[in-house]
Amino acid sequence: MKRSRNIRLVLIGGLSAAAVTGCGPGNGNRAPLSAENVYTNNFYVPGVGYYHAPFRAWYSLPYNHFDPQTQRYFFGGQWSQTACQTITNISSPTAQVAQQAEALRTDIQRGGFGGSSGFYAVHA
Length: 124
Known about the structure:
Helix content is about 20%, strand content about 20%. It has helices at about 5-20, 95-105; strands spanning about 40, 45, 50, 55-60, 65, 70-75, 80, 90.
């Protein structure tokens, strides 16, 4: 029986998504954030925020957050009158964004002396 490469790619993508879901903050697994991993929309990291897959970065509000007072949606660091509609719901952050996000997270304890020498904002 000949196996299709497309099916294998879909299965690998599905397994990756399942692995990311298993790394949520509620289960005690605090895997390092990296550009090699994939994250789904609204993957939350304490101290960093919510991942917006189409924009490959973390933001302080959830993806497509709706503000009833302004009647606007938040995505990718901006506000819009319409929600972002895209088929991208899983992606990998850039190496720089992943490094900055890892430095900001508050769900892990770091040892050592002193404090940090600088502050990095992943995205507002």
